[in-house]
Known about the structure:
8 helices; 9 strands; amino-acid biosynthesis
Amino acid sequence: MKTDQHIHTPYCPHGSKDLFERYIEQAIKQGFQMISFTEHAPLPPSFVDPTPDQDSGMKLEHLEGYIHIIQQLKESFKKDIRVNVGFEVDFIEGFEEETKAFLDTYGHEIDDSILSVHFLQNNGTYYCMDYSSDVFSDMINVFGGVENVYKAYYDTVYRSVLSSLGAYKPKRIGHMTLVHKFQKAFPCQNEFTYETNRILDLIQKQNMQLDYNGAGLYKPLCEEPYPADAVVKEAKKRNIPLIYGSDAHTAKDVGQGYSYLEPML
Ligand SMILES: [Zn+2]
Ligand SMILES: [Zn+2]
């Protein structure tokens, strides 16, 4: 079945205001049989978003409306495509209890979800790792080298897979090599094979899945999918399901990179 299971929506404060219908029409046009809207879930209430506009997650007060509108669209488009209600949930070290509380409250309304790491912590200060190359550059200074940023990222992803987030913990790990987003500006010599294999072993053991994400192909400093090819090869060896996601933040980006990733799906 052709699916795109990582799509953002007008509820994303850093995305576009493209209507849900535009995304769905794009998906139908490209022959997708199922899509999941996976908006950035509201961040834990006590977490202070370090981005300048504090726009990394959707607003908690919009949550009911978001779920409701997708449920309606699910119904009205059901002849043409299956539409899932979903979230991209942040794993933020130190905020696991609040994340679990969110999932415990809304999990029964969620069809599909992704667990992603965007925020990394150093001495109690959090950074949004994929926000910009300037922030990434600051992180290299603070963490003491690009290798240390990679190490912190993969260790955090490992802990996300290991985390106890309750019965509604997402089964899929988002863009596992997101730390490559600015790799052409900040190359890293170490491949971190031990760290990535350790994550994959745990994903396999827990019967989880990988988000196979086309967005990185279109990031000028990345130019490769998430995860990168070497990690995908290892995931295949372990029979870990790869679930395609465009990570579209505008309707025209639905399906981006699909033809490149398709042979591995
Ligand atoms: Zn986003
Ligand atoms: Zn993400």
